[in-house]
Amino acid sequence: MAPPKRTRLLRSSKASSAQAARAPSFATRSQTSSASSSSNQRASTSASSNQHASTSAASNQNGQQVLGVIPTVFDAGDCNILPTQPTIAEYDLIQQTKEVIVILDATGASTPSSSARIPIRQVIEAKIPRGCLVANRGQAFGGWTRDTTAEYPGIPTKYFTSGDVENYEGDLCTVQCVFEVPQFPKLLIAKYLGWDASAAYEENKDAVFKKFPYVKKWITMKTHFLDAIKTLEPNNLVGVKRERYLDDGLLMEKENIFWIYQEMSYLHSFINRCNGLPFVWYMNVKNTAAPPKFCYSVVNVIEKKLLDEYQKQEAGLKKVKKIKQPTGERMACEKPETCVCDSIFEYYDRKNRDEEELPDADDTEAITRKNMRPDSSGRLNFEGFNTDDQRMVVECSDACGCSLDCPRRQLQRGQKVGVVVYYEDECRQFGLRALEPIKQGQFIIEYTGQILEVEPEGSGVIEDRDVSYDAVFAIMDRRKVVNAINIGNAARFMSHACDPSAVFIETHSRQLVSDPLIPRIAVYALKDINVGEEITIKYFCQDLMSAKDEGIKCRCRPDCPNWLPIYPFESDDDDE
Ligand SMILES: C[S@@+](CC[C@H](N)C(=O)[O-])C[C@H]1O[C@@H](n2cnc3c(N)ncnc32)[C@H](O)[C@@H]1O
């Protein structure tokens, strides 16, 4: 089937009109957007699944045995469940199947079983999500290969080019990213998923918006974000302009790192979208530094051995009895009379006090352990809050008798505001910025990563890893951390600030008490954060930070006197 006729060539100097007439088109067939639930797409997606199945049981690049290929953590079926306008039944299905646990168990021994609600993945191999059909076809049949030293987990290395159009015309195309054309407000430059930059083309703005509703949202939010950056960083106007209108040369520079930013923005946002989560973008308006390589996951990853430990601890949690609610305390749960969240907090508090073995009652009182309860809008109250305090949120489950809309289930319901991974400067590198306004006390994002032991095998020394990617649990499990250096989401980019705009809160969260309980880390806003402003946390408590001229000079503000400690730390026991 021939693509529709074009009226005007995008960049006459960049492609011949013959190429232009055959450029890939998003409008070639009755295609729906990539996250649509159309039966056509379901059929194609499962065909593509079969293709992947045949490539399983191989070895990955590190020589590690691959038990079965998981194209990304989330695409093996999850991408089929998110229609743009779900029916009630489909909505229920999304709610019921959201949580996924990933188990790393390279030996394949004693494989844990999955349930329909909590699929368990045995091996992570970041691949292009299955729902991205043309990107997968490009990877298999594309005519151009990107420099393979630049490989990013889950990002294509092969692409269709304008020269491939003859063989693949009529292939379904998804608009991956768009740029405005200053003199022609009705046009957009569209680059397509799975096609290289030379096959970018101009399209009618309204037609793109109609076909791909997310593009309209994308461009509106991008403009808003870039307008905010213009005010916040007036020295970077050239880079800001390029994000909006593109640079003349970029369409001919397929290898330019700029295109990796576009790939990561689309594909990670796609994985988010499949899980009911908002946009995540990657942006560098300052230089040509490359974004870091890491495996994107919207859930925590845990080894079977550690999951087994958590399952043993369930015995204690099962004994938790509902305590009488103190009068005058605020209760966010829809069903305060049956809510057991405060009782669960009491359970952990008591358990910690027993383990602390402090010499006298005065010392015990010195530890402030806070039960953070959301208000009826789901926000936390940070009045009188100290970032050095131990704190925890317990979320409702089916044991509380409330609905899924209960305000005490923020992390379960998932991130609501989009974020931008933004290049800050040479010292801090990438940080995280708000794509949408955030209110004080609001849940922002989960900090996902690998659950690791603080001191593996009783070594007494924290593993030789960059602990600035560790998020610790002070209440639920002092022996484990969430580490996001290799696997994680956009939260792994948050910079340290001595006066932060956000905070980690360890969270006890599961929808059903029959789900495994794995501690999670939520990020909440300590103050209002406007579009374009940075989301920062305080990495270390005050006594680990010092002005002692060693470690990493803190760049949270130009005159900050503090230094961040360096790694690895010796554990306390070995200090003397
Ligand atoms: C968890 S990572 C944050 C993401 C990282 N910036 C990146 O681009 O991948 C922590 C590292 O960021 C840098 N960093 C974060 N906050 C900083 C600050 N306030 N001052 C100096 N460096 C900072 C340090 O190199 C630190 O080791």
Automatic annotation (TrEMBL):
Location in or out of the cell: Chromosome
Keyword Cytoplasm found: no
Lineage: Eukaryota, Metazoa, Ecdysozoa, Nematoda, Chromadorea
This protein's name: SET domain-containing protein
Any one annotated GO CC term: chromosome
Alphabetically ordered keywords of this record: Chromosome, Metal-binding, Methyltransferase, S-adenosyl-L-methionine, Transferase, Zinc
Coiled coil spans: none
Biased composition, class Basic residues, residue ranges: 1-11
Source taxon at top rank: Eukaryota
Keyword Translocase applies: no
Compositionally biased intervals (Low complexity): 12-51
A Pfam match: SET
Region ranges (Disordered): 1-60
Residue span, SET domain: 417-540
Entry's Gene Ontology BP terms: methylation
GO molecular function: metal ion binding; methyltransferase activity
Chief localisation class: nucleus
Underlying gene: Cnig_chr_X.g26568
SUPFAM superfamilies reported for this sequence: SET domain
